[in-house]
Amino acid sequence: MYKLVRNARLPVSLNRAKLHGSQNNDKLPTEPGVELEPEVAKQIEEDKRRLQWRTPYSERPDSFYSAFKLFASENRNSELVEKMQQPINLSPASILQWWQKRRMAVEAHMQKFIPERHATLGDDIATAHFVVHRGGSVRFRGDTKWIKKNEDDEYDLPRRHVPGMVLEEVRCDGLNLFYEGMENIQKLLRLRHLSFENVALFDDWYLDRISGNMLPSLEKLNLRGTAVSHRGLNCLYRLPSLKLLLVDDPEKDILWKLSVAMLEEWNPNLRVVSNE
């Protein structure tokens, strides 16, 4: 038992759980006239640190979450304990759902930007490898042939930087692309045509990432069959050379009409249509 200065008996509401509670309780609940000796308070703080079984994300110096320390919760142990107490569902539907989420997480990780690849191959050839490897097709300047995988998943692209190879057209139609992969399509200073038709996951966040990836010469952008809304069109001001934007229905509702009108007013050379 801890010894108190004035009252030798703890109040009923002050039990062991409250003495060794979460870090959110910086001060112990006391009644008027109840004070702890400095040594006792110090011992309690040491016990709380000793009983803490992991370091919060916001306090890890090598963690991405440390940048958002002001918004992070200091005690997430209860969330983990709650998940551990939930019954395990081993039904076929649950296992299939877990497996699908696992595959998506792995694929999203595999699509992350690799600086060494772009530094070795150059931005044009590195982007071509990223797109063609996943089933898309590309075309370089001065070549009428589209490069894509054959039946054996083989394709003809250089494995080193080749000066003068300029990527002009990229088709990502129907690919399973994640937001992490959008950074691979960047710094294509002479890219003219870019298509994301029927990419189901492509939404406003994807479009915002693409529009900020330094595509100053992009003239045609195909967004048919995607999840882009009228709000996503506001970020296209970053593409000054854009002349043709393909969407499912530019006159779907009043919000689409207003967004398209504002975009065309900003860029008089731009046409927003559903068919070429």
Summarize the structure.
This protein has helices at 16-19, 38-51, 77-85, 92-110, 115-121, 123-133, 204-211, 254-266, and strands at 137-140, 167-171, 193-195, 220-222, 244-246, 271-273.
The helix/strand order is: HHHHHHEEEHEEHE
Fraction in helix: 25-40%
The share of residues in extended strands comes to 5-15%
Mean of residue pLDDT? 83
* Content-based structural category: alpha/beta
Strand order in the largest sheet: 1-2-3-4-5-6
Unreliable spans are 1-32
The biggest beta sheet is recorded as: 6 strands, mixed
What is the number of strand segments?
A: 6
Q: State Rg.
A: 29 Å
Gross morphology: extended
Distance between the amino and carboxyl termini: 82 Å
Number of helices: 8
What does the model show?
There is one protein chain. Helix 5 packs across helix 6. Mean pLDDT is 83; it is low at 1-32. The chain is an alpha/beta fold. The longest helix is centred in the middle third of the chain and has 19 residues, at 92-110. The protein has a 6-stranded mixed sheet, covered by helices on one side. It has helices at residues 16-19, 38-51, 77-85, 92-110, 115-121, 123-133, 204-211, 254-266, and strands at 137-140, 167-171, 193-195, 220-222, 244-246, 271-273. It is extended and about 80 Å long.
Secondary-structure blueprint:
Blueprint: H1 16-19, H2 38-51, H3 77-85, H4 92-110, H5 115-121, H6 123-133, E1 137-140, E2 167-171, E3 193-195, H7 204-211, E4 220-222, E5 244-246, H8 254-266, E6 271-273
Parallel strand pairs: 2-3, 3-4, 4-5, 5-6
Antiparallel strand pairs: 1-2
Helix pairs in contact: 5-6
